[in-house]
Every structure is written in structure tokens, then in C-alpha cells.
Amino acid sequence: MTADGAASSGSVVVGGQDDFGYQANVTITDFGDDDEVTLKFNTYSAGTGQNAVSLVDTDDDDDEISVDPDSNLNDILEQGDYDISSSVDTDPAETLENPDDVATLFIDERSTDGIQVWTASDSNADDITSADDDEKLDEIESAVEDDELTQTSSVAHNDVSVHQLSASGLTGLLDYAAAVDGSIGEDDKAEQLGYLVDNNGTDNYADGDKHVRFRLRETRASAGPNADRITVPVNASVIDDVVVDEENDEYYVFVDTTSLDLATDEDYEFDVQFRVQDERLVDPDDEDISTDSEYRALYQQVSAQFDVEERDASFDADPYNVTPTDSEEVTGTTNVAPGTEFTVRARSKTGTQPSFVKTNDEINVTTDGAWSTTFDFSEQNVGDEYTLRISQLGLSDTEEVDGTVVEEPEEPANFAVSDLSAPGSVTQGDVIDVSATIENTGEATATQTVEFQIEGDTVLDQDIELSGGESTTVEYTDVDTSSLDPGDYEHGVFTNDDSQTATLTVEEASDDGSEDDSSDDSTDDSSDDDSTDDSSDDSTDDSSDDSSDDSTDDSTDDDSTDDSTPGFGALVALVALIAAALLATRRRD
Questions:
Q1: Count of alpha carbons within 13 Å of 370, Cβ hemisphere only?
Q2: Using H for helix, E for strand and C for coil, what is the string for 234-293?
Q3: In 3-state terms, what secondary structure has residue 546?
Q4: Is the overall model pTM greater than 0.90, yes or no?
Q5: pLDDT tens sequence across 211-238
Q6: Distance in angstroms (rounded) separating the CA atoms of residues 232 and 228
Q7: Higher local confidence (pLDDT), 29 or 346
Q8: Percent of all residues in the chain with a pLDDT value above 90, rounded to a whole number
Q9: Which of 99, 182, 544, 554 could form an S-S bond across to 85 if both were Cys, CB 3.0 to 4.6 Å?
């Protein structure tokens, strides 16, 4: 609200009891030096007994207001449009009757839309959380652009997991937490969210439920059968910071995985779940609610899944040989957060003279987990031996490889795929066998994981070690196709360096999978050359066996007429014999 230089006070009225069922009266007792005040209206707090209107932080300490919530509202404000009336008159009733200006407040339906998981190194996360509050969002945007904050489903131990909540209508609830607990700062969003996770909602119908549920829970697959699953409430004890993007309704919750108290040499899989349970936000008064379960059905929940993995790193070759030049590149991979810095050291082995130590620090992990550094080996002799070691990365086990200075470096390992043997079509539910030849066309010995994939998903894999020029055949047998819908799929064998694929057509299984061979058997039995001689024995056995089996199995088949032919033929023969006997008797008479 602004006023000309002649006015030092005024009032603002939000709503109006008669027209909107809610009214908040704000009296500005002193505009201060700027003739302007900025007010914040909390649509959640309206009707809770807490002040819904407050002054936005200002450099002018002379700004003063008083708030009178002239309303009997107990529920959250309904969606819709509300008038905001203002005037230089300090009487709210007069301002409502004769306003100098009228604005409109629009209250829309809130929503809980999604959750995403990001990761950052401890140092990069600290750059964000230690920034001034009005700069944290800019720090996040810069970190994303520089690949220092990356979206991922895997987080390494001791890195920071960032959970991005997409939800509208939560800022008022966070401010409400600060108002209820006077020890929480107005700008301390981490403490505010922690309060909401730990404390009961306002008059919740379902007793004991908190304002929100925000938790990490180990999956059953991760914990194992019959084992207790780890459950971590994401509250003030584990939240490093919360950065709010009010314009886009996004909340970035920073959780340092060291606070989860996990065994760092083990891998875990977690479901992260965020659920709005607050009575005012789910608004059960709009529903016919009579039980806890009906109330809980109104909760809004989003979830995601991510892994917390043991920190690891490796070199791209073992042994890692170099030539005596001043720019020998050493490369590798790691699962720690992009932007992490660490050290690689090259130390001469016993017997190498003169001895040497070369150290490269501030090696940076890129967005795909790769890293590289360059060493100067120009002063070393061919035949010098050394050990490369990774340090300052927080690994559970030491990662190192040996190497030798050589005249010509080995050509890196390259696992080529050829001679793919894979079916072109299959009936849904059948199993398939696939094989391929894997050849290391390089010189260096290496181990790679060779995968059989269908539509980019790994179905089976096996680790293969090959020396330079060596080849082997990989086989994947009894691959079940029950889960594949009818259609075409790309499938094949993949290495880190190469792949070979083919198209697999999955055909729908027939509804009638039975096979009918009875017509062949019956024909053979009935047309047997010995049928006349053995009619007394075989006709009885064949007709009884065939008719009992076939009538049960094939009574609904289209070939039922053919299946009955042997029995019918035997019956005709029997009738013919009886008729012949009667005729002979009559002739004798």
C-alpha cells in the first residue's frame, strides 16, 4: 500500500464479512519514510487464531501495522476471489464502505504434484545452503547449469541428496509453523518443515497424524525378507536446508546422507515419500467424512525411489602403462556426485631409481561420472614401475593400480561384438537363447560386463575378462518372454564399446494350445490289416480306449466327427455280424 506525502497512516481490509464470510482489518499506523508498506497475507493462517497479515521485511523500521481478524472463520479460506480494500482512513469500516482503491485476491486450488531426486557433493551443496537467502535459488540454477547439481536415481554415501518437491499452497503452512513455534525463525524453512513433520496437524480428524509426512523408507527388496526396514523421518535433524522457489511452487530439501546413519560399505534402496495430511489443506468439510480411513483417503501423496550406494572409483586400465612424455592422461570413473574434487597420486615402486612421487589434486568428477588428469613422465625411464592411487574421495577400500613406463602404450581394450545368434520371432511365454562372440581387439587386458538387453533394459549380464586379441562366446539361455506384450522389440548383446542387435517379434499365444493326433491313431487302428482276425480283441480295446479319451479331450473340437469314426465302424461291424447270424438261423429253420 502506498500513500502520498500528506498521509502517514491508513487501513487495508481483506475480504468483507457480509460478502465473503471473512474479514481481516489491517491498520497502518506509520508509513515510515517511504510512504509505502508491503503486506503478506497468509491464506492458511486465516481463521487459525494466528495473524494472517504481516509486514514484509523492510529497511524502514518506522513501518508499523496492527491486525484485527474480524471473523469467526474456523476453516481454511475457500477458493475464489476476495476484495482487498484500502484507504488513508484508519477506520476499517469506513475503508470497506468507501475505499480509495480496491484490488482482488485470487485463491486457487492447491496441489501436490511430484518429487525428484538430485545429488551434489558436500562442498557444492554447502555453496548453495551457505548463500544469503535471496541468493540460494540463483545458486541452485547455477549449480544445475554447471553440472554441480544433477538429477539422479543413485546417490553415493556422504554426498547430499536433494529432494525437489513440486507442490502449491505450502508457503502459508511453513509460515504458520514459525508463528506457532516462536523459536523458529521466519526464514528458517528447514526448521519450519521439520516442525510440520514432527507435530500433529490442526484438529486432524485422524488422531496422531502430522501436518505432513516426509520420510525415507528402505524398500523390501533392499532390506531382504523378514528384515526390519530402515525408516528415516525427514525432519529438522536430517534437513540441512530448504530452498523455496515460490514463483514455480518448488521446494528443494537438502539432506546430507551422512545424517542417515547408514553403513557406508553397503548399498541401500529407498522410497522417498511426501504426503500432505493437514486437516485444513485436505479440507474434509467438503466431503462426507465419518471414519479415519475416509479422511486419510483425502491425503495427497507423491513418491520416488533412489539408491544410496557405496562410494567407488576405478581406473580405466589395469595395469595402467604410460610413455615417457610430459602429458600422459590417466582416466577413470566414479559414482560420487559430479563436481567432487579428489586426488590421484603416482608413486614409484621399490627398485625404481630414482624414486618419484607425482600428485594431482583438484581432479573434478564430470556429469557422467568420468574423470581425467595429466601427469608429466618425461623424466622417467622406460621400465620404471609405479602405483597409481586415488585419495581424498572417501572410499571404503583403497583403489590403486600398477603401471610401467613403456616405449609404446598398449592399445586400450576394446570389446567388439559379432556373430549374434538371436531369434527373430517367438510366441509370448516361450523362452529364447541368445549368443554372441566378444573379442578384445585392443592390447590391454580388461574386464567388462557384457549385457543382454531388450529395448534398452538389461535382462542378463556376465563379467568377461579378455586379454588383447582374445575372444569368447557369451550365451544367455532360457530367457523368459512372458512379460513381453505382442509386438516388435530390439534385443541384443552390449559391451561398453560395442553392440549388435536384432528385432524380436513376440507373437500372441493361441487360446487353444492343444494338439490333436487322435484322427491319425484311429485311422491306423481301424484300417489295420489284422482288424478282421483281431476284431474280437482289438475292436473292444481300441473302441473303448479311444472313445473314452477322445470324447473327454476333444468333445468340443471341430474334429469330433472324425474322432468318433473308429468306434462307429466297430459298431457297424458288430451289427453286421449279428445280422448275418440271424439270417443263417432263419435259413436253417
A1: 7
A2: CCCCCEEEEEEEHHHCEEEEEEEHHHHCCCCCCCEEEEEEEEECCHHHHCHHHCCCCCHH
A3: helix
A4: no
A5: 999 999 999 999 999 999 999 999 999 9
A6: 13
A7: 346
A8: 64
A9: 99
Q: Are 503 and 424 in contact (CB under 8 A)?
A: yes
486 beta partners: none
Long-range Cβ pairs for the range 140-148 (8 Å, 24+): 140/243, 140/252, 143/339, 146/339, 147/338, 147/339, 147/366, 147/367, 148/120, 148/121, 148/124, 148/338, 148/339
Of residues 383 and 284, the one with the higher pLDDT is 383
**In whole angstroms, what is the distance from residue 574 CA to residue 203 CA?**
91
C-alpha cell at 142: 547455477
Neighbours of 540 (CB within 10 A): 13
Cβ neighbours of residue 480 closer than 8 Å, sequence gap 6 or more: 429, 431
Give the three cell numbers for residue 59. 529497511
* 181: amino acid identity, one letter: D
Q: In what helix (H) or strand (E) does residue 580 lie, and over which residues does it extend?
A: helix 565-588
Q: What is the pLDDT of residue 231?
A: 96
Residue range 428-451: average pLDDT? 94
Cα gap 148→365, rounded to integer Å: 9
128 in Cβ contact with 142 (< 8 Å): no
CA–CA–CA angle 390, 396, 402 (5° rounding): 35
Q: What share of the chain is helix, strand, coil (3-state, %, to 5)?
A: 20, 40, 40
Size of the chain, expressed as the number of residues it contains: 589
Query: How confident is the prediction for the chain on average, in pLDDT?
Result: 84
Task: Report which of 489, 521, 525, 487 is spatially closest to residue 504, judged by C-alpha positions.
Answer: 489
